[in-house]
Amino acid sequence: MKKFLVSMAMAALAAPLFAQTTVPARLAVIDVQKVLTTSTQGKAAYERLKKLQDDRVAKMQKMDEEVKSMANDLTTKKLSLSEEKQAEMAKAIQEKQTAMQRYAQDADKEVTDARDKALQELDGKIKPIIDGIGKEMGLAVIFNKFESGLIYASDAIDITETVIKRFNESTPAK
Predict the structure, then answer these.
(1) Helix pair 40-77, 83-136: axis angle to 10 deg
(2) β-strand 139-144 against 26-30: which pairing, if any?
């Protein structure tokens, strides 16, 4: 009976050792941010977002110039205008400033939504490529290099360049 219990204990302790040999123990890391900023599609998405943001900023600057011009007009003509006309001009300036603030909020939301949508689309296209490379290389785990709590990773396990190359080859930039 004692031999049987010792044998069972040894088997129980050895079981994890045998189980570990059946699972691939290879791992890799990927710098997703680098994929997004250096891939053809990532660069194209960045340019589209930059153009959208630049257009919104230009319109904001134009609105700001109009408000400043109206305020300058009020200041220079203040002595020659009636109180009623001054109040009317001040109200118009206030309304323009409110419209400008609303536009800024709407533009910010529009740019944020466009960025989120672009990232989601890129993620949907990159993920299958990463999965394919992982299966091809027999990897058990692929970590996001800078968002996984990883402190150090050898360049030998970094598959970022491979992912960028395959991603660029798989789909043309839009």
Answers:
(1) 170
(2) parallel
